[in-house]
Amino acid sequence: MSTESKEHGVVARQLDRLQAQGRLVTTVEEVTLSCRLTYLAARRQLERLAPRVVRLPGRPSSVLIVPPEHQPRGAPPVAAWLDAYLRLRDTRYYVGLLSAAALHGATQQALQATQVIADFAVRPIDVGRIHLDFYVKHHAASTPLTELPGLPALLAVSTPEATALNLIAFNTRIGGIRRAAEVIAEMKPVLTIAGMRTALAAEQQVALKQRLGYVLEVVGLERLAAEVRKVLPARAAITALQTHASMHLPRTAAIHPWLVLDNVKLGAQ
Fold first, then answer.
1. Which parts of the chain have pLDDT scores under 50?
2. Phi/psi at 59 (nearest 5 deg)?
3. 209 CB contacts (<8 Å, ≥6 apart)?
4. How far is CA 145 from the centre of its chain?
5. Confidence (pLDDT) at 109
6. What pTM did the predictor assign?
7. What is the pLDDT of residues 120-139, one digit of tens each?
8. Are 117 and 94 in contact (CB under 8 A)?
9. At residue 194, what are phi and psi to the nearest 5 degrees?
10. Taken in order 153, 158, 164, 170, is the CA torsion positive or negative?
């Protein structure tokens, strides 16, 4: 047997061991050490094992193990490997927005991408048929998170209430404030007063809370809206419901107690 064949076999066996441990993400450096190869030899052997492994972008140089049943899609489900991958990149993250809403039961979301919140800019990632979009949020580490049962691996997901706040904050990236309101209404069964208090305590933007309170009231979640009202300052600036909207309203049209200008007529639907 040639040296190259032996190297190919030892790398494949290392991947078998990792997969048996439930690990789908490794690095070229780890393979180099475990298989006693040079870095160049390990990288070449991993490349030759495609489509069983695919390279992931960023540093350290990471690779994703793709079990046979997932090779037609080019990658396993995101939940099986995203946490391990982003931890290797030392990236604080959580699955948020429409992706989190879908995990929390908003079943009408036809998602073409997994939406991830991170604490610094990360370029979109394509792995097989999977697409990841990243959004930057300062103080992302303070966002309340939950770990959902039944997933194949650990996965940081924003709580339903934190997801509602983020849907308002990033509404222009998901189709506007109306879309955000629709999704929040779909999450009604899992939104709790205790969870809302925790999410509000972690949020610093007053205008965001004003918009959320108004949206909750419009979609019929009055008890949750009342919790938002409790944390608003006695004096707050008037804010538009939808930023960059074409409709402009006079300050006298601000809706109390939220001091929100409903410039998309959300409350008139």
1. 1-3
2. -120, 140
3. 165, 200, 203, 228, 231, 232
4. 11
5. 59
6. 0.90
7. 899 999 999 999 999 999 88
8. yes
9. -60, -45
10. negative
